[in-house]
Amino acid sequence: xxxxxYPPIEPYATGTxxxxxxxxxxxxxxxxxxxxxxxxxxxxxxxxxxxxxxxLFDPALYDxxxxxxxxCGNSTPHxxxxxxxxxxxxxxxxxxxxxxxxxxxxxxxxxxxxxxxLAYAQAHPDRVSEIVxxxxxxxxxxxxxxxxxxxxSEMFPDKYERFVAPIPEAERGDLLRAYHRRxxxxxxxxxxxxxxxxxxxxxxxxxxxxDPATSAQHDEGHFxxxxxxxxxxxxxxxxxxxxxxxxxxxxxxxxxxxxIIHGRYDMPCPARYAxxxxxxxxxxxxxxxxxxxxxxxxxxxxxxLIRATDRYAGKSGE
Length: 318
Prior knowledge:
Blueprint: E1 13-20, E2 23-31, E3 36-41, E4 62-67, H1 86-100, E5 105-110, H2 112-123, E6 128-134, H3 141-148, H4 152-155, H5 157-164, H6 175-184, H7 188-203, H8 212-219, H9 221-236, H10 245-248, E7 258-263, H11 271-280, E8 285-289, H12 299-312
Parallel strand pairs: 3-4, 3-5, 5-6, 6-7, 7-8
Antiparallel strand pairs: 1-2, 2-4
Helix pairs in contact: 1-2, 5-7, 6-7, 6-9, 7-8, 7-9
């Protein structure tokens, strides 16, 4: 039987952390205080946390810290790009670990969260007890081209046509930078219009089958503005990673128990990169899920995510 989310719960604590540079990070803590510590890293970059994310962990066995990364969700300034890089976020995770008062914690990340989890774990391997990754993303030029230029366009020609429509034909040779200009200049109204087109393209391609709720979230202006601005900001800067850095430094993870979960038909994040991580980090469990796209809500992906968090908390499988 496929596992599903644990029942909805409310945080036992919420707060904000001033991380400097004008940024304030919103966080929440869920589960049982003093139980197995874990940190949840959301996707995007720019996506934010959701109440559903709390259900990925058994609340009786985990003490989970979830937070909105710089510029998104309830963190401020909304959609702020200054002092917002991968390495600022890695430093924020360490600040939050110190706030939580734990020496090590399980790191859980999906999509962009997998990128950030790898960057953090490779920088601070001694602070990571286990890693659970979903929808592996390396932020390579090839991945960016696949999603924004040629690749997903062949699978979703109708969605892609709407994505490129706001961009004049002369600028379509580099859609990432064309969108970045529109998301960082002009009026707020113009930025939101561009952001909705950007965000909806992703929202409509991350699930194997259409999901109106996911599409609606990505089409909402406030969410879309942070999502699109922060993504474009990170992607034009290659996420401040050296070429193939996360694969090159995978050897730093060899002593850390890990689980890699990826959908066979993941459109934003082609499975070859998950496979490459599996080869570079063979000690980690690897699950390539048939009949699944990118989102954590895909039934086969969700099943393996819950089984992984249960297993790392010492709970026997069903």
